[in-house]
Structure formats: structure tokens, C-alpha cells
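Could you show me just one protein sequence together with its fold in C-alpha cell form as a worked example?
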Amino acid sequence: MDFVAYLKESFTGSMSSVLTMGAIIIPLMVVMEILKDTKVLERFSSKLNPIAKFFNISNESIFPLLIGIIFGLAYGAGIIIDSTEEGNLSKRDLYVLVIFLLACHAIFEDTLIFAAVGANLWLIFIIRLIVAIIISYFAARIIDKRQLVEED
């Protein structure tokens, strides 16, 4: 095996992945900023307020949650990091958001990949969504109880 050829291919493959991710994450962040400035994101988040209330998270957590669900962890991470650095997400919001996305990231893409190899599309989709909801719901309640105990 030619070690130099291996390094070259590894480097070019990695750079290709980074550029592809950048081509998606940067426009998403620009769109997010535009949506924030025009108050569209605020109106959108208010319509999804029941989801935020169910998990007891802030409305600002909804957009990163949706991006993670649709595009996956790698792309959602860019939005999550940006929202966290802006101070829009509390540690609690971040924990619940990440727990949900661990079970239910890139749900459309992953489900279609599994369906292409013969898995039941709807069964995988529904199970992943239900498991994510249940785990996140109880995680949010445990975090609440832990915070109440620490405050005493």
C-alpha cells in the first residue's frame, strides 16, 4: 500500500466532506439570522410552542431541533453551537435537545436509507420518533427534579 497515496486520498476526502458541510451549514446559519431579524423565526417558534412546552424547553430550541431532525447531527450541530454561543439555549435546553437528536436525527434521510435495503419505512420512522419523544420527555423531567434538589 502506498502511504502517500493513502494520505492524499484521506486528505482530499476529508476536505470534500468539510466543504460539503460548510456549503450546507453556512447558508442555514445565514437563513437563521435573516429569519431572526425579520421576526419570522419568532412567529414560527410561537406556532410550535406546544412542543417546547411539552419538553419544557425554550422556544429558541425549536429551530435547532427541527434542523437536527431534518438534516442530522452534523448540520444541526452548527445551528446548535451558534444558538448556544448567542446565549439562546440554556444548559437544560441543550441537554434535552441533544438527547432527542441522539434518538431521532436525520429521520427522513436515515429512514429512506433503511427502506432502500428492505426495512419497513413507517415502522422505523414511527419507532424512532416515539422513542425520542419518550426519552426526551423523561430526561426533561429528571433534569427538572435534579435542579429542584440542587436548589434546596
About this structure: The chain has one domain: 3-151. The mean pLDDT is 85. The two ends are 63 Å apart (CA to CA).
